[in-house]
Amino acid sequence: MEEFTVQIVTPKRIAYDNKAKFIEYNTINGFVGVYPSHVPTTQIIEPGEIKIYEEGGNIVRGALLSGFVKIMPDLITVMAEVLEWKDEIDIERATNAKQRAEDRLQKKDSSLDVLRAEVALKRALVRLKIASE
C-alpha cells in the first residue's frame, strides 16, 4: 500500500510524525481526504476533527482547531495553531467554553463579534466530540 509522511507541527511541539495511508480534516472549503501522490496544494484549516489512517488499520484522531496544510505527493505538513489529542482535552474547560459561546450568541448584543463567538463554539464542540469518543 502506498503511504506518505504526515507531520503535524504546533508552536510548542511536533505533535505527529509518521507514515499514513490516508488523512481527513476540515478546511474552509469543506471536509477533505488526501491519499498519497496528491497534487501539491495548500489549504486553510477550519476547526474540526483530523483522522490519520495508518497501516494496519489504526486511526489516529484529534481536534485540529486552526492552521494550514501543505500537501506534497509524499509529505503532508499540518502547521497547526492548536491540535489536541483525546487525552489532552480538558472536558470541563471545553464545556465551559461551549456554554459561554452559546450564551453570547443567544444575547444578540449589538457589540458582539458573532464570528468570534461562532468559532469559539465550533472549537468547543470539536473538543467535546473528540473527548467523548
Summarize the topology.
Elements: E1 4-9, E2 14-20, E3 22-27, E4 30-34, E5 41-44, E6 48-53, E7 59-72, E8 75-85, H1 91-107, H2 114-132
Parallel strand pairs: 1-8
Antiparallel strand pairs: 1-2, 3-4, 3-6, 5-7, 6-7, 7-8
Helix pairs in contact: 1-2
Tally of alpha and pi helices: 2
Terminal Cα separation, in Å?
Answer: 28 Å
Low-confidence stretches: none
Give the total of beta strands: 8
Tertiary shape: elongated
Strand content: 35-45%
Query: What structural category do the secondary elements indicate?
Result: alpha+beta
| Mean pLDDT level | 92
Explain how this protein is built:
The chain is α+β, with helices and mostly antiparallel strands and 133 residues long. It contains 2 helices and 8 strands, in the order E-E-E-E-E-E-E-E-H-H. Strands 1, 2, 3, 4, 5, 6, 7 and 8 form an 8-stranded mixed beta sheet that branches. Strand 1 and strand 2 form a beta hairpin. The model has no long low-confidence stretch (mean pLDDT 92).
Question: What distinguishing features does this structure have?
Answer:
alpha+beta, eight-stranded mixed sheet, 2 helices
In short:
The protein has 133 residues and is α+β, with helices and mostly antiparallel strands. The chain has helices at 91-107, 114-132; strands spanning 4-9, 14-20, 22-27, 30-34, 41-44, 48-53, 59-72, 75-85.
